[in-house]
Amino acid sequence: MTLPRFDEIRPKIEAHIREVKDFPKKGINFRDIMPLFTNPQLVNELCVVIADHVRHTVGQIDSVAGLEARGFLFGPQVAIQLGVPFVPIRKKGKLPGATIEASYVKEYGEDRVEIQEGAIKKGERVFLIDDLLATGGTLRVSGFFLFNVKN
Ligand SMILES: O=P(O)(O)OC[C@H]1O[C@H](OP(=O)(O)OP(=O)(O)O)[C@H](O)[C@@H]1O
Ligand SMILES: Nc1ncnc2[nH]cnc12
């Protein structure tokens, strides 16, 4: 899929991403996105472009979900642009109350994550935001559903 407005800012985004070899373990080429946040205007532009993409290409959604921690840097900003709730997906043990849990394998390890029960209802359309895909882990982003939401 081409995203002309993203392509316009892509060089600026890429210029703010730092590569760190062998972090957090040997053999991993870590992409550090934090330098982006030295440029708040660019982060804002990026979130506006993502929100416009959702509006024009994805259509009506019920919520934006973001994966702790780096998904929290972008997800709430996009949700605010779209006027929909933000649903946090957190590492295990951080969310109070009843939760639904899933595990997945990522490039440099394995994680267990949770959402609060009832945060997403069956049949809702949720736009998932994270900072980057490395291996894609055990998630399949196209048509994948991380959690088995029964209610
Ligand atoms: O494509 P994958 O191989 O699955 O890797 C990508 C995932 O790994 C990172 O999260 P991580 O939990 O390491 O870090 P964070 O807590 O700093 O967001 C990144 O933010 C993605 O969620
Ligand atoms: N290569 C990588 N750079 C930054 N974050 C990551 N998460 C998983 N793999 C990563």
TrEMBL record:
Record domain Phosphoribosyltransferase: where: 40-142
Pfam families: Pribosyltran
Molecular-function GO terms, alphabetical: adenine binding; adenine phosphoribosyltransferase activity; AMP binding
SUPFAM superfamilies attached to this UniProt entry: PRTase-like (SSF53271)
Pathway: Purine metabolism; AMP biosynthesis via salvage pathway; AMP from adenine: step 1/1
Enzyme class per UniProt: transferase
Membrane in keyword set: no
Main subcellular localisation: cytoplasm
Family named by the database record: Belongs to the purine/pyrimidine phosphoribosyltransferase family.
Name of the protein: Adenine phosphoribosyltransferase
Organism: Caenorhabditis japonica
